[in-house]
Design goal:
The complex is a heterodimer of chains A (about 400) and B (about 230). Chain A is an alpha+beta fold. In chain A, about 55% of the residues lie in helices and about 20% in strands. Chain A has helices spanning about 1-10, 15-55, 65-70, 80-85, 120-125, 130-135, 150-155, 195-200, 205-210, 230-245, 255-260, 260-295, 300-310, 315-350, 360, 375-400, 405-410; strands spanning about 60-65, 90-105, 110-120, 135, 145-150, 165-170, 175-190, 200-205, 220-225, 250-255, 350, 370. A six-stranded mixed barrel of chain A has the order 2-3-8-5-7-6. Chain A has a two-stranded antiparallel sheet with strand order 11-12. In chain A, helix 1 (about 1-10) packs across helix 14, helix 2 (about 15-55) runs antiparallel to helix 12 (about 260-295) and helix 2 packs antiparallel against helix 16. With about 230 residues, chain B is α/β, with parallel strands linked by helices. Chain B has one domain (about 1-225): P-loop containing nucleotide triphosphate hydrolases (Rossmann fold), CATH 3.40.50.300. Chain B has helices at about 45-55, 75-85, 100-110, 115-130, 145-160, 175-195, 205-210; strands at about 1-15, 20-30, 35-40, 60-65, 70, 85-90, 165-170, 195-200, 210-215, 220-225. In chain B, strand 9 (about 210-215) and strand 10 form a beta hairpin. The longest helix of chain B is centred in the C-terminal third of the chain and has 18 residues, at about 175-195. Bound molecules: adenosine-5'-triphosphate and magnesium ion. The site of adenosine-5'-triphosphate has 12 residues of chain B, from strand 1, strand 2 and helix 1.
Chain lengths: ~400, ~230
């Protein structure tokens, strides 16, 4: 074994320029893969977190079918019981309750439809970024009753400013008319236009009174300590909710179920990324195949001599494979190291994304992006390079096996 | 005891549409310790026969046995192993490994035989001294003259004490004085170490060194005499 390794090592340095070029090509493609995969993963996480933090949350507990129907009657009747369950799960960072229904909202000049959301000001501030997004005026406080927050675009459409009055008119849970007048206390602007155009927020207590909700809510919104805790939390909630007595079943939905569009977007982006990576790896594989074939071609006569003086064809194959795998492994390791360093650098500094792509801006990314180095993003690309290079190296190495000493020695 | 046995060996090369008969029904035996010259005009099949005896090429028909190993049933890798431990080669065109020094070329066979490095070095130097290349251990083949390269090739062929050395026109590219020196070395190895030598040549002087002369003519065995 050690003899073979020594022989392979010597062969590598017979043509240092070619070996270094090969190593560089492998290293560069590995570096690129590490960085780009980390970047993709990082952008997904940013997208998810942005959407999650603005309003969706990592998880929600809702009445069954509420997600599809959004009917005011499909409620979580006893939020306190759900809260008691959540308090027992350590991975839950924060949670809040919301009531939500579609109503007409009118200013003096205009009327339009909007989603009226009842929020618990104290809890909402822990769960969503809404408080930070208020650009004019103030966030709701616990004492507020007839105050409201409004999205910047909706405020503009309704020609409303701070302190102006807004009439809300809709249908209550019991079928009666729900009507109230609120004063604009704050105007917020998230980067998601859809959100800024369509919603107003009023205190949950007011919501429950106006819409005859009693103590019921529509959504229990949960933030996990980290994205990776979501599945675990979902399982615990589900098992513990079963123990609760409910006349109508409650469902626990994670962010993927709450925002199927985001999940599909991510999948699409992953697939197009994969196609690009595949082509990249293919190009590398062919250039490496070429290098290895060249290396063998110019040494054919020497292989003939080596076989003539007693080297078995199997050993030649082995030495050649060690040779090419050494090049590959050196390339891949340096690629992983350099790629990780580069990724970590940008992970701390961010990359400016002023002209963001459609997908990114749709999910609220228009500023800085942060790649995220994970085990998966650091290893999977280079491993694919390794596998393909191995196959590329296998062909010429096996070609040697079929050489006969006389024929090989006759080569120039 | 015969070290080489050839029975009805045939070898035909296909060159495009033309079939070239290189060996036709060649049969002979060579006893252990022999010092045999294989003579014949150019194209008579000498190189072909040596390649077959060394297992570098396979015969179309007929049997070749070296030290009791019938080639017909052996794989490429078994043949390589046999060459490693039993057969030394000296080629017409030296055929040293260009990127290795004289000593490393000689050591290579012992490396394959897993002989420890210190013994390898010491034996390589000793044998190079013996063929008159003392002090030129670290020269690359390109830095040696033709005669010196051929002596490295002889050293490589005999260093691991094979049973038999096959030498294809070892002196063809050398002047007569250098050629004579090389033959003296081979003869000495033959006598001292009982290594069987078969060498091809069309040089009268070289034939005179041999104790047995096998003559090939158009691929057939034309004459076989012991002096
Ligand atoms: N690879 C080959 N393809 C086709 N014909 C070949 C091949 N090798 C040898 N021959 C032919 O086989 C015959 C025997 O060749 P061989 O090389 O054995 O002769 P030789 O006695 O060694 O000649 P020389 O003294 O010139 O070296 C010749 O006619 C030669 O042209
Ligand atoms: Mg010849």
């Amino acid at each position: 074994m050690t003899i073979d390794v020594k022989m392979a090592w010597r062969n590598i340095w017979r043509n240092p320029r070619r070996s270094i070029l090969t190593i560089s090509a492998i290293a560069f493609s590995s570096l690129l893969l590490v960085f780009m995969l980390s970047f993709q993963f990082g952008s997904y996480e940013t997208m998810i977190n942005t959407s999650v933090k603005i309003h969706i949350g990592h998880l929600q507990v809702q009445a069954d079918e509420y997600l599809d129907k959004k009917t005011i009657g499909l409620v979580v009747p006893n939020p306190a019981a759900v809260a008691a369950v959540l308090e027992t799960i350590p991975q839950v960072e924060a949670y809040t309750f919301r009531g939500q229904t579609f109503s007409l909202v009118s200013s003096k000049q205009r009327t339009c439809g909007a989603v009226v959301t009842g929020i618990d000001p104290r809890r909402e501030a822990q769960v969503s970024r809404l408080k930070k997004l208020v650009r004019q005026g103030r966030f709701l406080s616990e004492k507020d009753r007839a105050q409201a927050l409004i999205g910047k675009l909706l405020a503009r459409n309704l020609r409303l400013g701070l302190g102006d009055e807004l009439t809300v008119l809709g249908q209550a849970r019991d079928g009666s008319i729900a009507a109230t007048v609120v004063t604009i206390k704050g105007i917020y602007s998230s980067s998601i236009d859809e959100f800024d155009r369509s919603a107003i927020q009023i205190p949950l207590k007011t919501f429950q009174t106006v819409y005859a909700m009693n103590d019921a809510v529509h959504e229990v919104v949960i933030i996990a300590k980290s994205l990776s805790d979501v599945a675990g939390i979902k399982r615990s909630i589900e098992s513990k909710l079963l123990a609760l007595e409910n006349q109508k079943p409650l469902r626990t939905l994670d962010w993927q179920e709450l925002m199927p569009g985001l999940r599909q977007g991510i999948e699409m982006d992953l697939i197009s990324g994969m196609i690009f990576y595949f082509l990249l790896i293919l190009v590398v594989a062919f250039s490496i195949l070429n290098t290895f074939l060249m290396a063998i071609f110019e040494r054919t006569k020497e292989f003939g001599v080596m076989m003539a003086i007693g080297t078995t064809p199997g050993r030649l194959t082995k030495v050649l494979l060690i040779e090419s795998m050494t090049l590959t492994v050196i390339g891949i390791i340096s690629g992983i190291l350099l790629g990780s360093m580069m990724t970590l650098y940008f992970q701390s500094r961010g990359i400016d994304f002023s002209g963001a792509s459609d997908l990114l801006s749709q999910f609220g990314i228009s500023g800085r992006m942060y790649p995220k180095l994970t085990m998966l993003s650091a290893i999977s690309g280079p491993m694919a390079v390794w596998a393909i290079t191995f196959l590329a190296a296998l062909y010429p190495a096996l070609k040697v096996r079929r050489m006969r000493p006389v024929d090989a020695m006759r080569a120039v | 005891m015969n070290i080489v046995e050839c029975t009805d060996v045939n070898k035909t090369y296909q060159q495009g549409q033309v079939q070239i008969v290189a060996l036709k029904d060649v049969s002979f035996c060579i006893e252990t310790g022999a010092f045999v010259a294989l003579a014949g005009p150019s194209g008579s099949g000498k190189t072909t026969l040596l390649n077959l005896i060394g297992g570098l090429d396979s015969a179309d028909s007929g049997d070749i046995t070296v030290d009791g190993n019938p080639f017909g049933q052996m794989s490429q890798s078994q043949l390589a192993k046999l060459r490693l431990y039993m057969v030394g080669f000296v080629f017409q065109a030296y055929n040293l490994i260009p990127v290795r020094s004289a000593a490393e070329n000689v050591e290579f066979v012992m490396l394959l035989q897993r002989i420890p490095v210190s013994e390898r070095k010491q034996r390589a130097r000793a044998i190079l001294d013996e063929v008159g290349l003392g002090g030129k251990y670290d020269r690359r083949p390109a830095q040696l003259s033709g005669g010196q390269q051929q002596r490295v090739a002889v050293a490589r062929a005999i260093v691991s004490n094979p049973s038999i050395v096959l030498a294809d026109e070892p002196t063809a590219n050398l002047d007569s004085k250098t050629g004579k020196g090389l033959l003296e070395i081979m003869k000495k190895m033959n006598l001292e170490k009982q290594i069987t030598f078969i060498f091809s040549t069309h040089d009268k002087m070289v034939m005179d060194y041999a104790r047995r002369l096998i003559l090939l003519q158009d691929g057939r065995l034309a004459d076989d005499r012991v002096k």
